[in-house]
Structure formats: C-alpha cells, structure tokens
C-alpha cells in the first residue's frame, strides 16, 4: 500500500511539473474536466506547450524522385549499314574515335563498284546514241523525210536513255565513289580497281564496331558501326503508381550519379503511353546536355522531376502525424469543447515538410503539431 501511494505521489509531481511555467498565475489555473470519453483535456499551463495548426486547402507541386538508365539521344545517333556487298578489307576507326561527317570508317572489296561503273558507261553510251538519232530524225522531219510520229518516238527514246544514264550516275554517288573517280568515268577514262568506302553519315563518336576484317557484308542489311553525338543524352526514368499522372512533357528534371560531380538539368520530352508489364512502371524520357560525355550508356542515375501540374490538398506539418502500435498514422484534433481527440488519417503525397491528408480531415479543423506525444501520454492515463 505504501508503494502504491509513493507511485501516485511521484506521478502527481511529474504532471504538476509539466504543467508549470515561469508565470506563477498559470500553476493555479483550475483543470477542466474532460467533456468526452474520446478526448483529453489539458490545463491552461499544459496547453502552453501545445502548438496548433489550422487545416486549410493549399496548392503544391509534386517532386518525383526515381531512378533511370542513360541512353544515346536517338535523334543524334545512327546505325551505319553496309551500302554495298563484299568482304571488309580494312577498318579505319576504333570505338571511342571522334569522326566527322563523311569520314571513312572502313574499306570493302566490293564487286558492286565494277557493276555500277559498267552500268553507268553502258547507260551513258546509250544516251549519246539515242540523242544523236533523235536529232537526226528531227532534221529528217524538217525535210519531210519521215513521219512526225517517228520523230516523236525518237525524242522519247532519247529522254528515256538520258534518264537511265542519270540514274546510273546517282547509283555511283550512293556508293560513295570518290568524286574524282566519277569524273574519270564520265570522261570515259580508265579507272583502277576501286575499294568501297563506308563513311560516317553524321559527326560524332564511334560507340559500336560490329564488323571485322574479312567479314562478308550484305548491302543494306549488315550493320557496321553506330555513331552517336554524345554531347546530348537521354535518361529513361521509371515512374510508378500515383506519380504517373504527375509527370508531363516539358517538366524540368535534375539528373545525378555517384560518378558525376555535378547535377545535370534536363527536360521531360516524352512520357510513354504503355506500362512496362515487368516493372508496372511508365517510362519518362529526360533529354539533357552531356558535358564532357560524363553520362555513359546503361549508367544508372538518380532522377528528380519537378511537376508543373498544380495540385490542391489539405496539407499538415509532418510533426502533426503520429503512429499507433500498428504503425498507422493519426493526428490529434481540437474538439468543440477544447479537448484533444485522436483521429486516424490517410496520408497522401509528402510535399517537403508537410503531408497531403487525402481523407478524414476537414478545412478549418485544428491539429496538434507540437506536443502530440504529451497529449498521447495524458490520454493513456
């Protein structure tokens, strides 16, 4: 019995001390009886240690924190296909080499060149002959030696032959034949054996080499190199759940990685319309500059997207949210009689140091932001 009286005396001293302040008047304030069984009432002195926040509708912008994978800017990268058939004789570049537009990448011993040169010479000779006959028929028609129909047919034949010649010339150009060699062919001069040259279609960096010396290439189908402009890159960020609706084209983003000393700004340029069946995520493409080529393909990076979409919700300070024994969130609200009652809430997005309460609170209600632990202690007594 003496022990119980001692415990009660100690607890009374603790409660009295927590309610005391530097103002002597407050210690004598009478306690208010609890108005409801769900609430707890505090003395005026005890309430001085309680800070309240009035719930009101607020606007905020979501920030999406996620991860992504670096890729080439596919608008600035290209796969170089073999423009002609034949075995590779020599490679002229290696992976990592910077190349200019039109720079030779590899040499190929291709029979396509001999075929194209022969086709051009044949078409050129036919065009010359057809034009000579057309001019002759035009003169004969003027002297009424042939019918007009025959002269018109000769003109048509000459035009067709000249078109075939021009097409054969374009075939030489498409094979990247050296302009001086083409001039020799057009002039009827003999040309030596020609090796085909695979050239870079853009300026950039050789990021893939897919052929080896001696490999037989098939025109238009064999991939030989990949050349990319690495001054810009894409980051394919994964967006999950409720954040999918927040990411929009044009949103600013920040990309960082452990191996990159600075944070690189970018912009969301595409949000996929499909959900990845494996990860259940949506891919948002972030386009950004790549200073010093610090971002490498397949590198994992951190991505932060600042949504420009304005949201409205009931925001309360993070300090107002407590957790029960089952780790479920709740807050203490001020009731009409001035007591404090516990209410479970549903947490939404966390905007900085505030939570968006998606259910169970109304605008105008007051919640405890500081001193909630003390109120919880008092309620359990």
Protein described:
- This protein is of the alpha+beta class and 381 residues long.
- 25% of the residues lie in helices and 35% in strands.
- The protein contains 6 helices and 22 strands.
- The strands form 5 sheets. The protein has a 6-stranded antiparallel barrel. A 4-stranded antiparallel sheet has the order 1-19-18-17.
- Strand 13 and strand 14 form a beta hairpin.
- The chain is elongated, with a radius of gyration of 41 Å.
- It starts with a helix and ends with a helix.
- The relative contact order is 0.19.
- The N terminus is likely disordered.
Structural class: alpha+beta
Can you count the helices? 6
Number of strands: 22
From the alpha carbons, calculate the radius of gyration and give it in angstroms: 41 Å
Task: Kindly report the spatial arrangement of strands forming the biggest sheet.
Answer: 3-12-15-14-13-16
Terminal CA distance: 20 Å
Main sheet specs: 6 strands, antiparallel, barrel
Tell me the helix content.
25-40%
Low-confidence stretches: 1-37
Tell me the series of helices and strands, N- to C-terminal.
HEHEEEEEEHHHEEEEEEEEEEEEEEEH
Please name the defining characteristics of this protein:
22 strands, alpha+beta, 4-stranded antiparallel beta sheet, 6 helices, about 375 residues, 6-stranded antiparallel β-barrel, single chain
Write the layout of secondary structure elements.
Layout: H1 2-19, E1 39-40, H2 44-47, E2 51-54, E3 57-72, E4 77-81, E5 86-91, E6 98-99, E7 104-108, H3 111-142, H4 148-174, H5 179-186, E8 196-199, E9 204-209, E10 216-217, E11 223-228, E12 232-239, E13 252-256, E14 264-271, E15 282-289, E16 300-317, E17 322-323, E18 329-334, E19 340-344, E20 346-351, E21 354-359, E22 366-370, H6 372-379
């Amino acid at each position: 019995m003496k022990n119980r009286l001692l415990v009660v005396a100690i607890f009374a001293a603790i409660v009295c001390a927590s309610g005391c302040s530097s103002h002597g008047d407050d210690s004598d304030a009478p306690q208010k009886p609890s108005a409801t069984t769900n609430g707890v009432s505090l003395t005026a002195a005890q309430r001085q240690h309680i800070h309240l926040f009035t719930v009101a509708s607020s606007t905020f912008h979501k920030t999406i924190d996620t991860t992504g994978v670096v890729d080439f800017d596919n608008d600035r990268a290209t796969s170089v296909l073999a423009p002609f058939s034949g075995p590779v004789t020599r490679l002229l570049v290696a992976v990592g080499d910077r190349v200019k537009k039109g720079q030779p990448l590899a040499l190929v011993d291709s029979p396509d060149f001999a075929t194209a040169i022969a086709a051009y010479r044949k078409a050129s000779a036919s065009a010359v002959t057809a034009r000579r006959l057309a001019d002759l028929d035009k003169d004969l028609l003027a002297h009424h030696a042939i019918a007009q129909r025959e002269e018109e047919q000769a003109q048509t034949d000459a035009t067709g032959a000249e078109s075939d010649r021009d097409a054969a010339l374009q075939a030489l150009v498409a094979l990247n034949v050296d302009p001086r060699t083409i001039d020799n062919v057009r002039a009827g001069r003999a040309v030596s054996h020609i090796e085909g040259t695979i050239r870079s279609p853009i300026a950039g960096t050789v990021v893939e080499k897919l052929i080896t010396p001696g490999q037989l290439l098939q025109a238009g189908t064999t991939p030989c190199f990949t050349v990319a402009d690495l001054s810009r890159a894409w980051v394919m960020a994964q967006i999950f759940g409720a954040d999918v609706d927040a990411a929009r084209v044009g949103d600013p983003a920040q990309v960082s990685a452990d191996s990159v000393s600075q944070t690189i700004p970018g912009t969301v340029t595409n949000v996929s319309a499909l959900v990845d069946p494996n990860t259940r995520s949506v891919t948002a493409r972030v386009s950004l500059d790549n200073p010093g080529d610090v971002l490498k393909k397949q590198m994992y990076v951190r991505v932060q997207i600042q949504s420009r979409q304005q949201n409205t919700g009931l925001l309360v300070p993070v300090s107002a949210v407590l957790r029960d024994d089952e780790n479920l969130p709740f807050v203490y609200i001020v009731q009409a009689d001035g007591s404090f009652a516990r209410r479970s809430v549903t947490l939404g997005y966390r905007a900085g140091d505030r939570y968006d309460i998606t259910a169970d609170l109304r605008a105008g209600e007051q919640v405890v932001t500081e001193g909630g632990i003390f109120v919880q202690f008092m309620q359990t007594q």
